[in-house]
Structure formats: structure tokens, C-alpha cells
Amino acid sequence: MLLPVDSTEKLSFNRCIMDGDLVIVYERHDVMKPINVSEKGVLQNRFGVFKHSDWIGKPFGSKAFSSKGGFVYLLAPTPELWTLVLSHRTQILYIADISFVIMYLEIVPGCVVLESGTGSGSLTTSLARAVAPNGHVYTFDFHEQRAVSAREDFERTGLSSLVTVGVRDIQGEGFPDEFIGRADSVFLDLPQPWLAIPSAAKMLQQDGVLCSFSPCIEQVQRSCETLKSSFTDIRTFEILLHTYEVREGNLASLQDSDGVLASLKSSKKRPRSTNGQEDSRPQSVMARRIGEVRGHTGYLTFARLSCIG
Amino acid sequence: MSTKNSEENSSGNQNRRITWEGCSVLLDINDGDRVLFARLTAGSKVKIGDKNCSLQPLIGRPFGSSFQVEVGADGPVLSQIIPNAEGNNLGEKMDDQTMEECRDNRALVDNNTAQSLTGEDIDDMRRKGATGDDIVQALIANSATFEKKTAFSQEKYRIKKQKKYAPRVLLRRPLARSICEAYFKKHAEKIGYLRVDTLSLLLSMANVTAHSDVLVFDMLEGLVTGAVAERLGGMGYVCNPYCGTTPYPVSIVRMFNLSDETCKRIVHARLTELQPSNSGNSTSTDQLVDACNITEQKNENTVSPSPAVDLVNMEESSSGNMETDTNVAAFPKSGNSVKAGKSEDAHREVIESWKENGFSSLIIAAPNMDAWDIAKELVPLLSYSAPFVIYHQYLEPLATCMHNLQSKKMAINLQISEPWLREYQVLPSRTHPHMQMSSSGGYLLSGTRISSNDQAPINTNL
């Protein structure tokens, strides 16, 4: 279960891992895997063989050991972890864009949200968390197989009661009439969003917010042209996330640098406990941005349906 | 233009789209030039330009509607602007021209003689009952240079004059987004320079949702507390831990239109009450208490009730004195204390269940305190596998905190991140990033609490 659907399931009630649970097996921050626990199941990785039966009854967040003594952590799934481990059927949205979209779409519990396309369901999962417990996300994809896979995923993550997946070409047909005037927010991630904007305007309540995600500025340009007729407060953003790595160590002093290219003295190689004269200066913690990052994901255009009275 | 009309769809929850008597609203004057919070009551008034206007006409109107000051028989009145009447025709007129614009500013001489209408002329028009829009039209007609301007600068001129002579008030919903943006724009120091995208990441990284019990160390006047409560939908809790004798002020919570149900879920508890009774680390808690007390003194008296109007003016900060800006009166009709800027004590049983099971996530936002000092006390209060996230305007405290959490094996999945946000102007043939941007929205340290006492089962060599 990715979300606590009722109060008996909340994480803080110390849930223990049970047969059938979805767990995120954590090796490193960039190596994780979603596993459904089953009595007879085994997980094999570079640390050895793990028997699922050893996990059952342990609290989430525990270490699990393999036959060889290697270990992994067993984490409770969250939308953030799920985004990192889900199977990519399409390009997906990541945490920075997702968080900003939820906030700017003004989604609160109880909201009705329309989304197209569904893609791999990365954003959908966070939309579901935001509308819970009594709202709903209706998400549409024109790709039949993709919709089926998405439904299976929402079943697996326990979100089926909050998300309905439809097969529909939103650019061609627009959203279904049953949602006219009912949507609090609409999210579009389509190649030609301007084709779906008139329909989105019909679905939204007054003052409801639309978001369109497009990788290319030409798409943004055309969308904004179309938005002008019935939307106000049209704003376009780009958001990226820089991450930092941290290490503790000593930088070489000028005196030490005699004929040698100085390298960072890491505290890991040189135990602090020696208390010797050689490292009399205090260790310092330093941070630097991690080298290669996503330089662009897409432009996020937001607009608010005009109030007509 | 859409012709649907569906006002009655949502009611009875915090997602209400029509204002009501006693609700909190965000008034956006002249496209963000001035932003202020107000409580809509029959008697509340707001000064727009040089006129005092009653907010009565705003009650029962849809959020998102715009108002203009009109001078009626009984003085200035706010009246709703129907968009069809004035439309987007300014913009559309412009578009045809911008593509093949050939005018430029070669003939423009800045000698202040272009406008032939004098101040007295304008006063005279006003006395004869001219509306703001009439004055703007007259100014354009009497400008010698207007026709020579590019369509783009004509539009700029028109907007400038409209803001001065026909100011507009947009009625916005006070949600985490708009509240954070309003503070960031006018009083960023009050919310520790927490930008809206950073706040959005805080809420995601802490997995805030209905039925979660979120421990929120909030030194940002309640902004984070309110934002978390907004996402609970009345299920679960926000618990504000505090050191010393008094909980930290959460006055910003009043700006949100949280339901009574949700307000009851905002509670506070003394840190020592939340910790296991036989905890041996009393000295470190004492240090934290001292640190908190210093911050607390700074926050004293931030709430000074004003008798008549319940207004928080975001604008008049010229005095540099924060206290005078937030003259917020207690919300008169409600018995709920969160709406008066104070949360309630957490009940005994609830505290006991947190002590037994742990919180489902943790957010720390204390811009003037040491991150590690707080984290080492609060992270152990989480259940295993629970996420936490720490906001700081500086990188160094988070780097140290991350290093300590790592070396003490308290958490995994640790990451320091910094969002970068850029806004764009999108116009035909004139699309480019905004010329000004916020260079930092602060830093976040996120991680997942783990069980630290797991031992390998048998004869394992380390």
C-alpha cells in the first residue's frame, strides 16, 4: 500500500511487513527495486540471496540480511520512491516538476483532477496522494496497452480507489462530457496540448487551474496563444533540482604542498581518534553540486479559468 | 469564451470557490503590485489608492473575480468587473501588429512635455463623475507620443495608467501556493526565504497526505504548519513540538481557510513530552531549549490585536518593523484557537500513540537554528522507514547534519537538493526568460529513518 487509505493503515502505526506487501528494496540511493513479498519468494542480487519469509513480521525500515551476510533495507513505498523504481513506458515526470505541479494546480484533499496522458503513472501517483481521501483522479491515455499497465500498477500500489484510467484520445475527442464543470484542475502532457485546451476549459470550474507540460518552447508558444481566449494568470516556468554531495575532510595547507599535488584528506582513510599532531586542524564538511544533472525536463504552463460572473 | 456556469459544485469543504462572510481572502491589487490578506466581514474595509472601500461587496462572490473602485452616491464602492465587457481586446489588438512591428523609439524625446492633460484637468474630470477608465482613455488621447510608441510600449503605458487611475482588485483563494508567494514577494525574511517551489518539495518529500501524523518544527510563523494541514483533509495530525515554555507562533495558519475539522488536527506538544521518558540525552535537549528560547524572544508580540479590521497588510513595510505590519485581530466568531493563531495541546492518548508508534514523517523549518541540533532530537521520534526533510536557507548546516546522520547510521537515502526556478515571458516573437529571478529558494536535506539496531542473524564477518 502506497497510501494509508484509512487510519488503521497509517505508517505511524508501526506496520510490519506482511505477505503480499509491496516493499522497496534499497541497496543504494540509486539502486532500488520494488518487490511484492510472498512466502516462498526469493530476491537475488550482488549481496546474495534473500528469502522473503525472513522479512515477514519485521517493521518497514529494517535491514534484511542475505545468506552471505550482505544486507539491504526494506522500505515502505511512497510516491517519491515509486517514481524512482517504476517501469518506464514513457518519459516520466520527476519530483521537482511533480511537486510544483501539485502546488500550482492548488490540489487539496477532495479535488477532482483530470490528466492526459497517463504515461507511466509517475505524476498520477502523486496526484492521487494529493486528492486523498475523498477526491479522485481521472487519467486518460490513447494507448490501450499503456492504460492496462497503468491500471495494474495502481492496483499494485493500492491506489485503485483514487484513480480511474480511461482509454481516450484527448487531443482528438476532448475529455468526456460527464466532467463538464466538475474538474478542479486539469493536467496535460500531450504533444499538441493546444488541441485539448478548449475541452479542458469546459471541464474546469471557474477559477480552476490548468497545467500543460511541454518539452519544447514552440509547444508552449502555441498553447499560450490558445489559452488567452478563456484563461487568465497564464504563467510559464521551468524547474530543476540541483543535488549536492557532502564529504568531510581536510584541505592541504600551504606548508604541506611541497612538490606534491595536494589531494583531499578524507577522514575515512585517516581515523580521527589518533589525536596526533599531523591533523591538528578541525575536520570540515564540504558540499559541492553533483556533476551531471538533467538540464531540462519541460516547461510548465499554468493558467486559471476566467471568472465570468 | 466558455459559457458554462457551475458555481454550486463544491461546497462544505476547504475547497470552496465562493467567498462567505468571515472567510479569509487574498486581495491582489494591480496584478501583484500590492497583496494583502483580509477577513471578509460586513465592517471590514481596505484602502485602495486614496479610497477606503468596504469589503462587503466581495462576500458571496466567486474566487478569481476582479473588482474595480467606482465612486457611487455613498462614496467609493468595489464593483465586479465582467470580463466580457472589457475583454482581452487590448491584447488581441496588439497581436496583429507585433509580428510586423516597424515602429521604434528613434523619435522619442524624454522631456516630460508629451502629456497635455494636467493634474487639474484630471481632478476636474473626476468631479464630473468620470470613471477611472475614462481618465485612462483621456490620457491616451492627449498623449502626443502614444501613437509613435510600439504596440508593446503602448500596452505598457495603458497598464501603467490603468493601475494608477483604475486600480483592480483580484480575489484570490488563500491556499499554500498563494500565501507562500505573497509572503515571499513582500516579506521573504519572515518565512525564512522559503520559496513556493521549495515548500512544494517539502510537502512531497515528507509524504504529506490524509491520515499522516506529521511532526512539523515550524519557525516560519505557521506557514509550513498551514500547508501541511491543507493536505490532511481533516485526517491525521500536524504536531508542532516546542522547547521552553510556549509554543512557537503559527499566526499564518489563520490566513488559510481551513475547516474546523482540520484546525482540530493542528496540535502542539512540548518536546520532552514526546520523547521517551528515560531518555538519557537531557543535556543536548537543554541546549536545544536554550537555542529555541533565543528565537522565541524574537518572536514575542508578533500578534497585536487591532480592534476593527482583520487585515494583514503585506505592503506597508517601509518602517522595517514586522510587528506593525501584522495587526491581526482574533477571528471573532470562532471558538477554535488555531484561528486565533494558537494551536491546542495534543491529547495525552495521542501523544502516547506517537511515543509507541512514531510519527509518519517530519519537517524541520527553522532558519536561525542548527539543523543537526534539532534533527538529532526529532528524527528518533519517527517510525522506521518514515521520510523526513529539513529546510535551511544556508547549505552548511545541512551538510553537517547530513554527515552526522550518515556517520551515526540514523538514516539512509540522504540527499541535499536545491531547486532552481525560472519564469518565462511567452508572447508572439517575444518569448524569453524573465529578466529578474530569485537566485535561491533555499536548500533541502531529505532522508529516510532506519532501524539502527538490526544485527546480522548469525556468524557474519563484518
TrEMBL record, chain A:
* Catalysed reaction equations from the record: adenosine(58) in tRNA + S-adenosyl-L-methionine = N(1)-methyladenosine(58) in tRNA + S-adenosyl-L-homocysteine + H(+)
- Give me the Gene Ontology terms describing cellular component: nucleus; tRNA (m1A) methyltransferase complex
Q: Where is this region: Disordered?
A: 265-286
Single GO MF descriptor: tRNA (adenine(58)-N1)-methyltransferase activity
Q: Which residues form the tRNA (adenine(58)-N(1))-methyltransferase catalytic subunit TRM61 C-terminal domain?
A: 70-304
Coiled coil residues, start to end: none
Q: Which UniProt keywords apply?
A: Methyltransferase, Nucleus, S-adenosyl-L-methionine, Transferase, tRNA processing
Against InterPro entries, the record matches this protein to: SAM-dependent_MTases_sf, TRM61_C, tRNA_MeTrfase_Gcd14
Q: Name one GO biological process term.
A: tRNA methylation
Where in or outside the cell is it found? Nucleus
- Gene3D superfamilies noted in UniProt: 3.10.330.20, Vaccinia Virus protein VP39
EC numbers listed for it are: 2.1.1.220
Q: Where does the protein principally reside? A: nucleus
Work out whether the entry's keyword set contains Zinc: no
Quote the record's binding site residues for S-adenosyl-L-methionine: S120, G121, S122, L123, D141, D169, D189
Belongs to which family? Belongs to the class I-like SAM-binding methyltransferase superfamily. TRM61 family.
Name under which the protein is recorded = tRNA (adenine(58)-N(1))-methyltransferase
Q: Which organism is it from?
A: Perilla frutescens var. hirtella
TrEMBL record, chain B:
Oligomer and partners: Heterotetramer.
- Protein localization: Nucleus
What family is reported? Belongs to the TRM6/GCD10 family.
Tell me the Gene Ontology biological-process terms attached to this UniProt entry. tRNA methylation
Q: What Pfam families does the record tag this protein with?
A: Gcd10p (PF04189)
Organism lineage: Eukaryota, Viridiplantae, Streptophyta, Embryophyta, Tracheophyta
Q: What GO terms are given for molecular function? A: translation initiation factor activity
Q: Does the keyword Protein biosynthesis apply?
A: yes
Annotated region described as Disordered, given as residue ranges: 318-343
Tell me which UniProt keywords the record has, alphabetically: Initiation factor, Nucleus, Protein biosynthesis, tRNA processing
One GO cellular component term: nucleus
Q: Tell me what this protein is called.
A: tRNA (adenine(58)-N(1))-methyltransferase non-catalytic subunit TRM6
What is the role of the protein in this entry? Substrate-binding subunit of tRNA (adenine-N1-)-methyltransferase, which catalyzes the formation of N1-methyladenine at position 58 (m1A58) in initiator methionyl-tRNA.
Main location (coarse class): nucleus
Q: Where is the composition biased (Polar residues)?
A: 318-327
